Amino acid sequence: xxxxxxxxxxxxxxxxxxxxxxxxxxxxxxxxxxxxxxxxxxxxxxxxxxxxxxxxxxxxxxxxxxxxxxxxxxxxxxxxxxxxxxxxxxxxxxxxxxxxxxxxxxxxxxxxxxxxxxxxxxxxxxxxxxxxxxxxxxxxxxxxxxxxxxxxxxxxxxxxxxxxxxxxxxxxxxxxxxxxxxxxxxxxxxxxxxxxxxxxxxxxxxxxxxxxxxxxxxxx
Length: 220
Description:
One of its GO terms (molecular function) is oxidoreductase activity. The protein is α/β, with parallel strands linked by helices. The protein has seven helices and eight strands.
């Protein structure tokens, strides 16, 4: 059985964090989609808030403390990446950008990536496409078509998007799995109608870092 290593970058600043909640939900959905194809997801969460001083020092001095070096290695060696940031002043957080700036310029070439973002208002929903997607295009990553944005109202089921956050999560996860397994089909949005667990619960269980067993990502 093939194992796929997925690095999850969460740039949330608070605890608990809606950014981390979205990152966990995307990781869980991606693991489920890979399992449907007979593969296993090996997931490692990178909480940037825990290594923020190391990220800043890395930019200022060019030296990488052990936690930062480990985080960069996880991302650069991953088979796929899930990157989620809060939106501040219409764009990604400074911490998110600083970390991405430290990633080797050639490391993500051809790597499938899901992009996610959170904000207090739906007015920032286009930030993924105008602010975040160009960064990963510059890194030559293979970004999936569906970006997942979640506003505060979406977490309570009050969002106005007819598809809803769960549907977008499922679709993005299917696109990622398709790229990893070579089964992606252009224009395939069938996963939008697949049942998926609501946000919260199993999808938002905190991971403590390290590799997460497949069984811990499945609904209970």
